[in-house]
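Troubleshooting: if your tokenizer reports a length mismatch, compare your output against this known-good record of 123 residues.
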Amino acid sequence: QVQLVESGGGLVQAGGSLRLSCAASGRTARNYAMGWFRQAPGKEREFVAAISRSAANTYYADSVKGRFTISRDNAKTTVDLQMNSLKPEDTGVYYCAATATTYYYARSQYDYWGQGTQVTVSS
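Known-good structure output:
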């Protein structure tokens, strides 16, 4: 069992930055690849970024490449998402998730989810 708790959301102007953090607890947390997803009002939850168990590989949605950076600290079992050059279309609830597979882009492959944190980018 893995518990995930996100933090760091808030309101920011377009062009600004935010850093989200996800704290993972549970003895097996280090054995999972981690991802961030987001959901805007009236839209489906979509993939944002993922990082492999060892942190050797990272993956990003095209819409955030070059602006967002995912990282993890396996000693602390935390996963961060640094978001720069934010745009109004980045607004949504951001979720941290854990997967035991290598299908990082697929929402259905994630076993555990956090409660989400709201990110609002004003124009």
